[in-house]
Amino acid sequence: MNLTAEHICYTYPKEKAPVLRDISFEAAEGDVTVIIGANGTGKTTLLKCLLGYLKGGGITRIGGRDRREYSYRRLSDTVGYMTQEGALMSGLSVLDVVLLGRLGTLNLRVQDEDVEKAASILRMLHLESLAARPFYALSGGQRRMVDAAQTLVRDPSVLIMDEPTANLDLIHELQVLELVKEYTHQKKTATLLTLHDLNMASRFADRLVLLKDGTVYRMGTPAEVITEEHIREAYGVQVRVTEGSEGRPVMQVIAPAVTAGYHF
Amino acid sequence: MERGAGQGRGIHAVYQRQNRRKWALIAALAVLCALTCVTDVLTAAASPAYRLTAGEVLACLLHPAQAASGTYVIVIRMRLPIALMALVIGFSLGTSGAVMQTILHNPLASPYTLGVGTAAGFGASLAIVLGLGAVATSGLAFLFAMLICVMIYLMGRRHVNSGSLVLSGIACLFLFQAMQALLQYGASEDQNQSIVFWSFGSLQRTDWYKLGLTATVAGVTAPLIFGDAWKYTALTMGDARAESLGVNVSRLKLKAFFLISLMAAVSVCFTGSIGFIGLAGPHIARMLVGEDQRFYMPVSALCGAVLLSAASVISKILQPGAVFPIGIVTSLIGVPFFFSLVFRKNRGGGVR
Fold this sequence. Notes:
Structural class of chain B: mainly alpha
Order of helices and strands of chain B: HHHHHHHHHHHHHH
Order of helices and strands of chain A: EEEHEEHEHHHEHEHEEHHEE
Strand content of chain A: 25-35%
Low-confidence stretches of chain A: none
Shape of chain B: globular
Shape of chain A: globular
Mean pLDDT of chain A: 91
Largest interface: A-B, 43 and 41 residues
Oligomer: heterodimer
C-alpha cells in the first residue's frame, strides 16, 4: 500500500505565513522514505497533516484512496504512527505498553497471539529483559525503543515514524533503523520517517524528501539529494560529501555553520 | 520472528501468571464484599429492644417467609437494602472515581473533589427549602449533580489541562457550598435541620425501590465502562498517544463522562454526599494492580464497595442505639488517604 501526498498545505491558526505550501510526494510500498530538512521546516506538521490530525489543504491517498474515505477504525488499523512526543509516565509494564499497539484486536482476556507478537518484537529489539519493568522506570532511550516496538507490533501497512531515533545512542539507533528497514522490505509497507541525522538518513533511506521553507526542495535517492550544494542551501552548512558503502553519500562538516561572532 | 521462541514463552508465562493473580484478587475482593455485607446485616443499629441474634437474622435471610413479622421488617425491609445499597453506592463511586482519574490524568479527581456531591447537596437543599418533598429532593440533587458533570466535561473539551480542570471542579464545589449556605441562611429551622441531615450523607433513607434504581444504573453502566478497559489503558499514556493508537479520544471521553455522571449522580441523589470513597477506591486499586484498567477499574469499584460497606458497619457500632452519619465516617477514613496521596513518594500515576 503506497502513500501519496498531493498539494499538502497548512497554516497554523493565528499565523499569516503557511508552514507547508504545496507539498507533493509519494512513499512507495517497500521503500523507506525519509523526510529531512532543517528544524521548523514543517516535518512533523506534514506528518500530522497526512494523518488528518491537522486539517489543511491537499489530499492524502493511502493505497490510492483518499484518507478521508477511511473510517476511524480502518485508518488506525492501516497506519502505524509513532509520535515525536513521548507518552505520559505510565505505571504500565513494558509488555503492556507494547500490547497497547494491538489495541484493535485486544480483548479483555488477552489472546496468546497478541502476547506472542509483543514478545517477538521485544525480542527483536533486545528488550525482552525489560518486559516486566514499569514504563516510567526506563531511560529516555529505552522508552523510545518501546515506543517503536508499540508501533511495529500493530503490523501496519503504512508506517509513519516521527524522529524514531531521538534520544537513542548509536547502537540502538542502528537497531531501530535496521529493524524498520527489514520490516519495510519484507512486509512491503510504505514507510515514512523523519530523521535529523543526515548520515543515518542517507544510509537507510530508499528515497529522501528534503524540505525547505515549506516546500519540497529536492527529492530522490540519497545520492541525488545529499550533495554539497543542497545541504548548503537547505541547512546553511558547508559540508564535504564523499561516497560511502553501497554508493551512499556520507557527509562531513568542513566549516563552522555560523561564522565566529560569539563573545562570552 | 521464530528466533528465541523459548524466551517469548517465558514472557508469556510471566504475563499469564500476573494476570491470574489479578483475577484472583478480584475474586477475593468480591468475597470480601459479601462478607462485609453479611456483617452489615448482622450488625444492630436500633435500640436493644429489637436486638436480634445472628441466628435469627440468618434464618430470616434464608427463609424470609417463615420469619416473625418484626424480624422480617427489620432484616428484609431495613437492614438488607441498606447493606446492599452500601455495596452498590461504594461500587458506583469507586468506578466513577477511577474513570475520572484516568480520563483527567489526575489522581485527585473523584466525584467528591470535583464537586458532584456538593452540587447534589445544593439541589437537595433547594428542594427542601422550596418544600418539594422527597422525590423532588432526589430529583433536584440528581439534576445538579449532572449539571456539574456537564460543566466539567465542557471545560475539559476546550483543552484545559487536567490540573486546571480539577481546580475548576474545586471552584465549583465552593460555589455550590456558598449557594447552599445562602439557602440555609434564609431557611427555617426545620428546613435547616433537614438540609444538614441530608448533607451528612446517609444510607438510612434507602428502600428497595431506590436500591433497585441505583443497582440498575450501576449494572448497566459498569459493563459499558469495563468493556472499554483497553482504551482507557491507552489513555493513561496521554491523549495524543491514545489517539495515535487508534482511540477516538473525544468520543471515549464523552461516553465516559455520560456514564459516570449518571452513576455518580444517582449515587449521591439518594444518599447525600459520601466523600472519599471515589478517591480511596482508585488509590488502593492502583497500589494493588497498577494501571492496567482491565483490573484497575473493577478493583477500584470493589474496593469502594468494601470500604462503604465497612463504613456502614462502623457507623452502626460507633454510637450504640443510633446510626452515626456514614458520610462523616467515610470522610474520617478518607482524610488519611488524602494525606498519603499528597505525601506519597512519586510512582507511576502518582501526584505530579
